[in-house]
Amino acid sequence: MPQWLSLLFIILAFSFVLLFSLIYLLRPTFMPYHRQGVGIEWEQLDERVRNLILALMRAVGFAWLAWLLSCLTLLALLWREASGPAWWTFAALFAFGLLTQALVAASFRARTGARTPVGLILIMAALGAAGLVLFGG
């Protein structure tokens, strides 16, 4: 299987992560699923609570960007020289980063009934996994 196809799947997954990162960094209010989870509108929240939520959203956005840059750095190393340790490190970092987000989103959904993007996160994980399998195979 051509390596460009595996790279395409991985880049698609990373594109979704980048999109989520930018949304969390630039959005002036919480996400619709956050509103569903807390059960009140943004304007009804105390200003200090709004500031806290925005700060946490920015922290998550920057954490996703850091994770993305780490993965891209490992991917570049892999592309140059596909060594076993680098491949497994990339696979573990990729899986941990996305599957923990899916777990957090699923947990919030289970506790609140909010329509969190669990499915989209799992699609990102599946795209990345397909890319890793094609790359390794």
From TrEMBL:
It comes from the Bacteria. The keyword Membrane applies. The chain crosses the membrane at residues 6-26, 52-79, 85-106, 118-136. Keywords: Membrane, Transmembrane, Transmembrane helix. This is Uncharacterized protein.
